């Protein structure tokens, strides 16, 4: 059982009583720092991560610098250590904001920093020249000397010779600029090819990011999950709350129409989406936790999942999300949620 969560407005005394009634209910946090010891292995990288990565996709776009720093502060108060960004987020502004926070808070040595590269307009793709330039650009914007986990984003580049890419990664590793290697947007057969090259001495892909959640089950629940399991890859799924839909905040077309994700959210307000929300409501009521926490807990109950990547717009949302790392769902609850999304 995961050992902590944040109290959801109830007193510690009430929460302890609830825990007695529900063995899988979260143990409330009583102050910052309690979650610092909660770490899980990030596959075979030798790195330990908090079981929830804080995504920075909204930083510099829908979230300003001050709010972004407040979100980061709140996350680390509860023991979080893993921050995820990309060189293409807000044209690099997300990295600038994180870099300012790392310096102002003195948090670099305490943070696991992962960066997805390959989608920045100045250095697109995974060709050798652009790959080096992209990594150097990210290091400069972040103000750091090393990226702990580098995700190769194949979304815009599925044709570059993988051997050339991995040879460039090898040089970057030897230069001390990156640590572990991850992948985003890689097809299962591409991951198999990468493992064959790794057996010949090239850097090994050890982490993958694939969008995955209760409502977006494919393509992960197919060959990709089989390959991840066979290769013992750590999976850090992005879009863990499907742009906020799985937080339960967007239950009508009027509410879903607000903000930049309105069209995507409205698309989920169908029979299947409503069924999933009802199942989430039921479990959330049983455990006395927010709907968002149950969505995260379902992900963490899936095999191969190490740490979902979750983006947020507001500091108070962090409290809800962190509870997901402290909830252990029963088998019956996991099964019911899974059936709702079938």
TrEMBL record:
Signal peptide (UniProt feature, chain positions): none
- Please report the stretch or stretches of sequence annotated as the NADP-dependent oxidoreductase domain: 51-339
For the region Disordered, what residue ranges are annotated?
1-30
Question: What InterPro entries does the entry give?
Answer: AKR_Detox_Biosynth (IPR050523), NAD(P)_OxRdtase_dom_sf (IPR036812), NADP_OxRdtase_dom (IPR023210)
State the Gene3D superfamilies in the record. Answer: NADP-dependent oxidoreductase domain
So which domain of life are we looking at? Bacteria
GO cellular component term, pick one = cytosol
Q: Name one Pfam family in it.
A: Aldo_ket_red
The name of this protein is Predicted oxidoreductase
List the source organism.
Microbacterium hydrocarbonoxydans
């Amino acid at each position: 059982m995961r050992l902590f969560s944040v109290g959801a407005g109830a007193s510690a005394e009430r929460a302890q009583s609830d825990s007695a009634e529900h063995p899988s209910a979260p143990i409330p946090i009583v102050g910052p720092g309690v979650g610092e010891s909660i770490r899980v292995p990030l596959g075979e990288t030798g790195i330990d991560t908090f079981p929830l990565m804080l995504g920075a996709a909204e930083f510099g776009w829908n979230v300003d610098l001050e709010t972004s720093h407040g979100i980061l502060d709140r996350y680390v108060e509860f023991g979080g250590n893993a921050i995820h960004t990309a060189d293409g987020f807000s044209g690099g502004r997300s990295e600038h904001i994180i870099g300012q926070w790392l310096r102002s808070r003195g948090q670099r040595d305490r943070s696991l920093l992962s960066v997805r590269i390959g989608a920045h307009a100045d250095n697109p793709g995974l060709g050798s020249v652009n790959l080096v330039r992209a990594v150097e650009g990210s290091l400069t914007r972040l103000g750091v000397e090393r990226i702990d986990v580098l995700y190769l984003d194949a979304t815009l580049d599925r044709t570059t010779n993988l051997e050339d890419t991995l040879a460039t990664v090898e040089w970057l590793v030897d230069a001390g600029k990156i640590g572990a290697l991850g992948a985003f947007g890689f097809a299962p057969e591409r991951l198999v090819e990468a493992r064959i090259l790794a057996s010949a001495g090239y850097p090994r892909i050890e982490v993958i990011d694939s969008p995955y959640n209760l409502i977006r089950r494919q393509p992960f629940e197919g060959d990709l999950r089989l390959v991840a399991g066979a290769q013992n890859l750590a999976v850090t799924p992005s879009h863990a709350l499907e742009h906020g839909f799985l937080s339960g905040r967007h239950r009508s077309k009027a509410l879903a129409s607000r903000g930049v994700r309105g069209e995507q959210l409205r698309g989920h307000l169908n029979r299947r989406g409503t069924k999933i929300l009802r199942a989430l409501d039921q479990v959330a009521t049983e455990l006395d936790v927010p709907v968002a926490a149950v969505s995260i807990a379902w992900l963490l109950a899936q095999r191969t999942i190490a740490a979902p990547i979750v983006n947020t717009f507001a500091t108070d949302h962090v409290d809800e999300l962190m509870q997901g790392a402290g909830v252990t769902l029963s088998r019956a609850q996991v099964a019911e949620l899974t059936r709702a999304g079938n």
